[in-house]
Amino acid sequence: MELIEGAPLSEHFSSLKEKSERFSEARVWDIFIQITLALRYLHKEKHIVHRDLSPNNIMLGENDKVTISESNTGATLPEGN
Predict the structure, then answer these.
(1) Which of 64, 66, 70, 76 has its CA 20 to 30 A from that of 7?
(2) pTM value?
(3) CATH fold of the domain at 7-76
(4) Phi, psi of 54 (to 5 degrees)
(5) Which residue of the set 27, 29, 32, 52 is catalytic?
(6) pLDDT digits over 14-48, tens only?
(7) What is the distance between the alpha carbons of residues 42 and 40, in angstroms, rounded to a whole number?
(8) How far apart are CA 42 and CA 8, in angstroms?
(9) Burial status of residue 69 (CB atoms within 10 A of its CB: 0-12, 13-18, 19 or more)
């Protein structure tokens, strides 16, 4: 297991809400694309479905680097999926 630098996406949402601010559209797309590619990798390459994806286990690090944290709720797909 490795230490994940950054804060959960949920904390970023709370911080922005307190300041009455929003993510820019470009930032949302960047984060969305990283999440999508990470999930595709887990599904296609590792045959894992993350069954508890939420803002609490999507970490944003430096330069908005996305890391999906594991909560032991993944399911392994049968071969061929």
Answers:
(1) 76
(2) 0.80
(3) Transferase(Phosphotransferase); domain 1 (1.10.510)
(4) -155, 170
(5) 52
(6) 999 999 999 999 999 999 999 999 999 999 999 98
(7) 5
(8) 19
(9) middle
